[in-house]
Specification:
The chain is mostly helical and about 500 residues long. It has 24 helices and no strands.
Length: about 500
Amino acid sequence: MNQTDPAADMDEETPLLNRRPASSESQINNSKLFLAVFSAVLGNFSFGYSLVYSSPVLPKLQSPDADPRLRMDPKQAAWFGSIYALGAVAGGLGAMLFNDLIGRKLSIMVSGVPSTIGYMILGGAMDQWMLHVGRFLTGVAGGMTAASIPVYISEISHKTVRGALGSCPQITAVFGSLSLYALGLVVSWRWLAVAGGLPAVLMVVLLVFMPSSPRRLLSLGREQQAEKALRWLRGKDYDTQIELRDIQHSISTQVKVTWSQLATPIFYQPILIAVMMRFLQQMTGITPILVYLETIFSKFQVPLEPRYDAALVGVVRIISVAIAAVLMDRAGRKALLYTSSMLMFVSSLTLTMISHTTACPPVPVPPNGTVSLDYSLQSDGGNIAAGIIPVISTMVFIFGYAMGWGPITWLLMSEVLPLAARGVASGLCVTVSWLTAFMLTNVFTILENQYGLYVPYLLFTVVCVLCLLFNAVCIPETRGRSLEEIENYFRTRHAFTINRSPSTAQSS
């Protein structure tokens, strides 16, 4: 970068950027960054909570003693479980607009509105349509947060901690699910809805005091505000000059994306990688497994009540994402994705064989065209093993997913998407993801009722092999790379290093 570069001009015109000599990364203070990330990922807590809300609630709404106005047959229960994904599609489309129109932080804050309203409707539901509307609105909030929070975190994080912080959305989503399972053991489904609205309200309150993304502020020409936000995030002893210059250089080399430019590798390659990762992530079957977890366990002769097994799975998810957070910037993204794919493959294959050998004959379809999810798998012998193995296999599947394809898909989406199209592209990824989730959640019940659990599990096994191959061929290793270096990887056909002029190199 030469002396006439816009970033250099900004450097001369803004004394704040020159008031300290370049300093080492040891002078970074990330305490306020952690506070900003915590404030944002409360939205992911609500996302994880609302995603699995149907798991403990559906058995109560399908029981004979449920309120007749709210009681659901299998077809209605399937819609209650899957309509969340349709709401998430709407939220993802909304994020495509809001991410670039009002910014990442405000987009996250806006998601608190449908979340709070949705939980209020669920808590006070007097008819089935209210249950579906409430579930849909919480899905809208989930789609918005899924598209906005990873991008916000990646843009405010330093590259040395971006991997660990990039796993925080998945960690808090998992913790939200575990909280739902735990509360479901002791409180009614209406109070579950009331409790679900609290994190969204707290998120909005805290984000009021958090800074906007320095990258967005620079893109709007607000250099002083960007410098102030970056210093707030990095600490008072951090020299912001080099990082701001790199961000400004990235912004100054961007142009408005046209349809013809989307055909160039710098745009279509990272977008396709991110979209395919979200598609494959959902095709592993994670959403229907979580949504119908208690129902699935009820089909095996499990040693504990399904609701307790579901809570144990939630604990396993917490442990696995914590391990992923520790290893993200040590082992690297690709190594964790390989491990994740293999664990999911082995567990899916085991569940396929178990469900095939112990399944009942298909349940006859009643005249009204609806079928029940409530038949139980039987076994001629080995009842204890038949009950324990599915639980252990499911835990292994969740463990594998939550340490690889769960958090890393979110992180890589925010890392590899081109900066000039990041807001729209992240919304596209979430839209594709949740359309896939909606389709799979509905198809899961159809396949399970017609053929047994082994058919959807066989599909998930094949997808795990595809995940392994896709990671080997298409996904770059982004550990320790800045967002600008990652973008340069696609611009220069797989070279991370950014070439600078001697004058810039000396200043660095």
